[in-house]
Write a structure and sequence with these properties.
Blueprint (H helix, E strand, L loop, with lengths): L2 H64 L4 H60 L4 H34 L1 H20 L1 H11 L4 H40 L5 H12 L7 H13 L3 H30 L3 H14 L4 H23 L1
Helix pairs in contact: 1-2, 1-4, 5-6, 6-7, 6-9, 6-11, 7-8, 8-9, 9-10, 10-11
Length: 360
């Protein structure tokens, strides 16, 4: 075949490939994404059940081997211990929160009175200064205040709508919880049967490969959750101890709230520390403001130093690989990529390991 014809064919092949990629990105991926979201909503209780089943499996195996119970007996016992432990811990935390919040509610009137006096003082100063300002400046201030008022009204409406959605969604949440618990029992009880059926249904060697990949990814996901739990626990403990040392009130309640916000990457501990420190500076409590900022820096630096190492130890990856995965995930997907990056690396590693083990 003449070289000119080959070059033309290469150009055509490249053009067709680029066109196929463009069409896939423009039409196929959005449609696939919408279907994926729909499937996630429909299968959500069963996905939760599969995750719970994976976390309970070591306990089920322990009860079956050490206690010599059948799997049909071990699974309910494991569920009782697993969910019972979570329930006891949450109950103790809730009681502690209620106690400290009750103490806080007793002092709220005095705090609101002090806040009201502080606002009244600044409003009085503002009125005096406002009368001496040029008209253009007062017009701009008026427009800014009007914009802030409209924004607050919109936020209030959104908050009301969210509250209504939460209230109306409670029956659905209860249904999801019930279905998830029932599905967890059957996933755990019939685990071996489900695996056997899958291997029989999927042609060899893909059945064994997918099972091996699923095991690797499940194990990695559990390790990743453990790593995040360790990191959040570190942030919470540092916050509680630090707040107690600087003499802050309700250290346990605030520390637990900080730990909760640390679970949400978009927010983080700064959601509590930064406004609190600013308020301390406004109230001329410079010492408390500096202490809060130092404590906040200690929390975020400790987490930043520990994160790659803790995740790497739990996942069995080199810290550099975890750090790269987290950074690339952050840049490509956003904040969610901090979690998805290492999980994707684990999935790739699991696929490679499964392929190697099958070919041996």
């Amino acid at each position: 075949m003449p070289r000119a014809v080959q070059n033309i064919l290469y150009v055509l092949a490249g053009t067709v490939t680029l066109l196929a990629i463009y069409l896939a990105l423009k039409y196929v991926l959005p449609e696939a994404y919408s279907w994926l979201k729909y499937l996630l909503v429909v299968l959500f209780p069963f996905l939760i059940a599969a995750i719970f089943s994976a976390f309970m499996e070591p306990l089920v195996v322990l009860l079956s081997n050490q206690g010599r119970f059948s799997r049909a007996v071990s699974v309910p016992l494991a569920m009782l211990l697993f969910f019972g432990s979570i329930g006891i811990v949450l109950t103790l935390l809730v009681f502690r929160l209620i106690k400290e919040l009750n103490d806080l509610s007793m002092t709220l009137p005095d705090r609101f009175t002090a806040l009201q006096n502080y606002i009244d003082e600044w409003v009085h100063k503002g009125v005096v200064i406002y009368g001496t300002l040029p008209k253009t400046v007062t017009d701009n201030l008026h427009a800014t205040l009007l914009s802030i008022t409209v924004t607050l009204q919109n936020w209030s409406r959104e908050l009301i709508n969210i509250s209504l959605h939460v209230v109306t969604g409670i029956p659905g949440v209860i249904l999801v919880v019930i279905i998830s618990l029932i599905a967890t029992y059957f996933f755990s009880k019939d685990r071996d049967k489900i695996i056997e059926l899958w291997i029989r249904f999927i042609p060899a060697p893909w059945g064994e490969k997918t099972i091996e990949v699923s095991r690797q990814v499940s194990s990695a996901f559990q390790a990743y959750v453990r790593a995040q739990f360790v990191l959040i626990s570190i942030s919470t403990v540092i916050s509680i101890i630090g707040l107690r040392l600087i003499g802050a009130e309700y250290a346990i309640t605030i520390g637990l709230i900080i730990g909760f916000f640390d679970l949400i990457p978009v927010l983080g501990p700064g959601t509590i520390y930064i406004p609190w420190a600013i308020w301390a500076f406004i109230n001329s409590d410079v010492v408390l403001g500096l202490q809060l900022l130092v404590l906040y820096l200690l929390v975020i630096v400790t987490r930043a130093v520990m994160e790659a190492k803790v995740v790497a130890v739990n996942l069995g990856l080199h810290p550099l690989a975890v750090l790269m995965a987290m950074y690339i995930g952050l840049k490509t997907v956003g904040v969610l990529g901090l979690f998805l990056g290492p999980i994707l690396v684990i999935a790739i590693q699991a696929v490679i390991k499964a392929g190697i083990s099958v070919h041996k």
